[in-house]
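Structure Section — protein described below
Tokens — whole-number codes for backbone shape
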Amino acid sequence: MELKMDRILYRQEDKIGYLTLNRTDKYNAVDNRMLDEFEAFIAARMYDNTVSVIILDGGAAKGFCAGLDMQTFGPEIFAMAPADAYNAQARLSRMMLGLRKIPQPVICCVHGAAAGIGFSLAMASDIRILAEDARFSAAYINIGLGGADMASSYFLPRLIGSGRANEFLLTGNWMDAQEAVKLGFASRIVPREEMVKTATELAKIMASKNPLGLRMTKEAININMDAGGLEACLQMEDRNQMMLSFGMHFQAK
């Protein structure tokens, strides 16, 4: 199955979906059309039981994603009435929420620069695999905005700890691939040409599991990132395990 889109490309092989950002001449910068297509992609995956894992990559562009297209979409937003500009901001930020809400784990393959929204797309993914030249910046603060945008102030402290996260968000400084792995932001560094292959190997392992178990594991991770405490975390895990156990029991009968 393939979605006929222009700014993003999607194909599916068995239980694995491959999502590629496809504005190669614009460093995969996000414009209004890419946002439309991304929203459609998220909506299509929300209840799609034919795919178990999504692999996201930057395709043939020089880098994964340069963030918002400041030559087209940026000026359009700044020219809008405040209420319309707020809606545009909310739609962009919900790209990250969408990646967390779809039931499929997302493996993000990053090469070159991931700035602004590009950084946040990587943060919102479940697993990150990097090329040697991957680097990340919360670039919002470098263009006069706040460094906390597109869920960066939510994800980054949870991924690498508040001390280093604060530094990156407040300065806009770059985090390179080696530091990203050292801080626990990414799981591994591989040659660029092996990123999707490595991601596919991981995806095949995940896709071989109980589909409901995979989905409920991502759901539990999402909920327990904000759990009120240990007891709330255990209640979620206990519920999931009993539902899965009894589901397998009744299937076996």
Notes: The beta strands are 2-3, 8-13, 16-21, 53-57, 106-110, 113-115, 127-130, 135-137, 175-176, 188-189. The chain has a mean pLDDT of 91. The first strand starts at residue 2 and ends at 3. The two ends are 34 Å apart (CA to CA).
